[in-house]
Design a protein that fits this description.
heterodimer; A: 111 residues; mainly beta; six-stranded mixed sheet; five-stranded antiparallel sheet; B: 110 residues; seven-stranded mixed sheet
Chain lengths: 111, 110
């Protein structure tokens, strides 16, 4: 069964606005990853945050992790039409062979 | 590097037919996995491998077989296709945490 669950399932915003997606998970983790999937394509790794980190930045992406609440959020600032995609959180990997994904958030950025 | 490649890109099968989805990676990654993606279900792990000669079942292994004779290749075999196997299949590989995905195979079983 999926470890992570993203919320909301779908999000529609205007270009230039910020987009926030959330991920909740069930068991303790060593790290959490976020991936993006453009329509009809494979997933692409965006960012990894370790369990001892609270916040991490990469360009217009900001990820937070709250291990006490077993939740993470992905913030995309100043969104662009090209950010339109599905976003997935994933847990596991490393020596835990199974990398499991949530069901994703579909983000639509309207020009 | 080509990364992770998958063939074919599209495939239509009749119920009961068998076929093999091909997956190859040129990054010398130890771990390889097969996922299926269905609307509203996200990605579900079918089988995975932690190295040549070693495979294990994921979340939804029934109806699928895998083998890993080389580091580079990880084919997925459908033994007797069923309409429930209509899906998009992704192969992926990694050496640490970051996973690299192939472009996917869209399979329709009629």
């Amino acid at each position: 069964s999926q470890q992570g669950e993203e919320d909301p399932q779908a999000l529609s915003i205007q270009e230039g606005e910020n987009a926030t997606m959330n991920c909740s998970y069930k068991t303790s983790i060593n790290n959490l990853q976020w991936y993006r999937q453009n329509s009809g394509r494979g997933l692409v790794h965006l960012i990894l945050i370790r369990s001892n980190e609270r916040e991490k930045h990469s360009g217009r992406l900001r990820v937070t992790l709250d291990t006490s609440k077993k939740s993470s959020s992905l913030l995309i600032t100043a969104s662009r039409a090209a950010d339109t995609a599905s976003y997935f959180c994933a847990t596991g990997g490393g020596s835990n062979y199974k990398l499991t994904f949530g069901k994703g958030t579909l983000l639509t950025v309207n020009p | 590097n080509a990364g992770v490649t998958q063939t074919p890109k599209f495939q239509v099968l009749k119920t009961g037919q068998s076929m093999t989805l091909q997956c190859a990676q040129d990054m010398n990654h130890e771990y390889m996995s097969w996922y299926r993606q269905d609307p509203g279900m996200g990605l579900r792990l079918i089988h995975y491998s932690v190295g040549a000669g070693i495979t294990d079942q994921g979340e939804v292994p029934n109806g699928y077989n895998v083998s890993r004779s080389t580091t580079e290749d990880f084919p997925l075999r459908l033994l007797s296709a069923a309409p429930s196997q209509t899906s998009v299949y992704f192969c992926a590989s990694r050496t640490g945490y970051e996973q690299y995905f192939g472009p996917g195979t869209r399979l329709t079983v009629t």
